[in-house]
Amino acid sequence: MKQRLNDDLGPLLADAGLLMFEYDADGFVVRAIGSCLGGSDPMLEVRSGLVSPEVVRRAAAGRSVTVQIAVGRRRISVKHEPVRGAGGRVERIVATAIDVTKARARARGVPALIRSLPSAS
Predict the structure, then answer these.
(1) Could you tell me which residues are beta bridge partners of residue 1?
(2) Phi-psi category of residue 18: left, alpha or beta, with phi > 0 → left and psi -120 to 50 → alpha
(3) How far is residue 113's CA from residue 121's CA, in Å, rounded to a whole number?
(4) Are 30 and 19 in contact (CB under 8 A)?
(5) pLDDT per residue over 4-55, tens digit each?
(6) 70 in a structural domain
(7) CB 96 within 8 Å of CB 66
(8) How many domains does the chain contain in total?
């Protein structure tokens, strides 16, 4: 059932430009699904620099961490959320990664667009 769910969700997440992955408190990736870089190997995408030792330390300490990472010419936003087990200890971290390159470019263009509009007076 779990593998079938992964098989069904993987292409949908990839079409949306979303990569989801989880790793243990030591930073070892347990699973990955989808794609934020357009590739066919989600584990390879995770290894492309989406997780740093500092982020692992902060997330394993129980903090939510969001970082923006440059991968080539792309800007990837990665959110890491700790998952606590019984007793409150962080057992694993789940993360989502999405390419925000186009959204950032559009956001930078809005002020210029506003300035180019004719004045209302």
Answers:
(1) none
(2) beta
(3) 18
(4) no
(5) 656 778 888 888 888 999 999 999 999 999 988 888 888 888 888 889 999 9
(6) yes
(7) no
(8) 1
Query: Is the alpha carbon torsion for 80, 84, 88, 90 positive or negative?
Result: negative
Query: How far is residue 58's CA from residue 83's CA, in Å, rounded to a whole number?
Result: 13
The CATH number linked to 71 is 3.30.450.20
Kindly report the backbone phi and psi dihedral angles of residue 108, in degrees, each rounded to the nearest multiple of 5, phi listed first.
-70, -30
Q: In the chain, at which residue ranges do the beta strands (DSSP E only) sit?
A: 18-24, 29-34, 65-71, 74-84, 90-99
In a domain, 121, yes or no: no
What is the domain extent for residue 23? 2-116
Residue 95 CA to residue 116 CA, distance in Å, equals 39
pTM to 2 decimal places: 0.78
**Residues 36 and 100 sit within 8 Å (Cβ to Cβ):** no
Cβ–Cβ under 8 Å, residues 77 and 100: yes
Would 74 be classed as within a structural domain? yes
